[in-house]
Amino acid sequence: MQTKIQTLPSKKNIALVAHDGKKAALKAWCLTHKNVLQTHHLFATGTTGHVIEKATGLSVEKLLSGPMGGDQQIGAKIAEHQIHMLVFFWDPLASQPHDPDVKALLRLAAVWNIPVACNEVTADLLIASPSISDEITRDLPDYQGYLATRLD
Questions:
Q1: Up-side HSE of residue 65: CA atoms within 13 Å toward CB?
Q2: 92 lies in a domain?
Q3: pLDDT value at residue 144
Q4: How high is the mean pLDDT in each 10-residue block of the chain (152 residues)?
Q5: What region holds the MGS-like domain (predicted)?
Q6: Per the annotation, where are the binding residues for substrate?
Q7: Residues 6 or more apart from 149 whose CB is under 8 A from it?
Q8: Domain region containing 48
Q9: Residue 69 gets which letter from DSSP?
């Protein structure tokens, strides 16, 4: 599939997701990086969003809880180019009943070429990047171009 270039805005839409065993770590991470996070638009799965909002006072657009469809809602927003970065503290040591949704979410992040942090150190590196508040470009699959060649 051909690709096209898209510019991401300086104010990023950041999705925040955490499994139950990692919610405390994501809450602590958000508290540490509150000054940067407050300059961006935050989305989160339901329970995680409530935890972050209560602990930090940050404004978070809360979707459904992950197992109730929130992971899929975040994935849809990624596919629609509404999410520019994903911070997903998943718990590799706990079985997740919605594991297929988790894998689908991570796959969509890879397909649509958005940065993903699955642990604190990677999230620290992303949020500390000089590009976090800059316009940056990314290559995307050219789905519209693909459709145009298939409909001829």
A1: 9
A2: yes
A3: 82
A4: 92 96 97 98 97 98 93 96 96 76 91 96 97 95 83 63
A5: 6-152
A6: 19, 23, 45-48, 65-66, 98
A7: none
A8: 12-133
A9: T
* Cβ atoms within 10 Å of 14's Cβ, excluding its own: 24
Q: Catalytic site residues?
A: 71
Q: What's the total number of domains in the chain?
A: 1
* Strand pairing class (3-8; 116-117): unpaired
Looking at the DSSP assignment, which residues form a beta bridge with residue 43? Answer: 15, 61
CATH of the domain at 103: 3.40.50.1380
> What confidence score (pLDDT) does residue 87 get?
98
Annotated binding-site residue numbers: 19, 23, 45-48, 65-66, 98
The per-residue pLDDT for 3 is 92
The pLDDT value given to residue 152: 59
Beta bridge partners of 41: 13
Cα-based angle 103, 109, 112 (whole degrees, multiple of 5): 135
Per the domain annotation, does 73 fall within a domain? yes
pTM score > 0.70 for this model? yes
List phi, psi (to 5°) of 138: -145, 150
